[in-house]
Amino acid sequence: MVSSYLEGNRIIDIGTGAGFPGVPLAINFSDKSFVLVDSVNKKLDVIRGTIKELNINNIEVIHSRAEELANNGEYRERFDVAVSRAVANLTTLVEYMLPFVKVGGICICMKGPNYEKEVDEARKAISILGGEIEKVLNIDIEGNERNIIFIRKNSSTPTKYPRGQGKPLKEPIK
Which in 31, 112, 136, 141 has the greatest CB count within 10 A? Predict the structure, then answer.
């Protein structure tokens, strides 16, 4: 089901940490190009080693803060899909993700069991940033509830987003 949303060829994983979900996706979809972004270089060193060991050729690893990289014209609105695990609340997460996605593309956000409140709080931010919730997929993995939120990008993200210096986290769009 999720694989049907991996449209296009260019996918970015924001806040990849130890490489999830980017590395497993890159292994399973070797015909697609992946960019894995994280602000902690030590984590990325592990990913670089894994990529080399497994001879994965469709991943680019970038050490950067998402809010800085999203303002680089080489990356802004250049991706078909943005993915992320639950690295922040949804309001903050979409401010990091949507600026990377082309109009018509999609953000795939993974959240835990209390996602409904986050979705309600994020609706205004999602709209301001050019997105719309398309679907929520509820999954039970051996008694652990996971929710995947699909956000379609319908219009360009205003250039003032994402805001820098930790503002998306400290002062979420309300």
Answer: 136
Name the pTM for this structure: 0.94
Residue-wise pLDDT for 116-145, tens only, equals: 999 999 999 999 999 999 999 998 888 888
Asked whether 46 and 53 are in contact (CB, 8 A), the reply is no
pLDDT, tens digit (0-9, with 9 covering 90-100), for 68-110: 999 999 999 999 999 998 678 899 999 999 999 999 999 999 9
